[in-house]
Amino acid sequence: MQEREFWQLLEEVFGRSYGRSLSRDQSLDALDSMTVVEALGAGVEPRVVWNVLCDHMDVPDARRWGSGHNAPPMPPKSWR
Questions:
Q1: Are 15 and 28 in contact (CB under 8 A)?
Q2: What is the pLDDT of residue 7?
Q3: Is the pLDDT of residue 63 over 70?
Q4: What angle do CA 62, 40, 74 make, to 5 degrees?
Q5: InterPro entries under this entry (predicted)?
Q6: What is the DSSP letter of 68?
Q7: Considering only CA atoms, which of 23, 17, 45, 51 is closest in space to residue 35?
Q8: How confident is the model at residue 23 (pLDDT cuts 50, 70, 90)?
Q9: How many CA atoms lie within 13 A of 77 on its CB side?
């Protein structure tokens, strides 16, 4: 998953305003309390950030990838 795809899904699943707000304001324990913006800036794979955010927000798998998207493969376990 490329970062561009991440932002498209964020808008599709959460809506433009709410998604952007989440990306700046919601700290994610699974990512050392970083926000989405901080995690992406630190080089965490967008797919990892997306899954952590969706888990945190209880987004079910059926909605997680939006309409017409296929789940990309997970990156290696070590994201740092």
A1: no
A2: 95
A3: yes
A4: 45
A5: DUF3046
A6: S
A7: 23
A8: very high
A9: 0
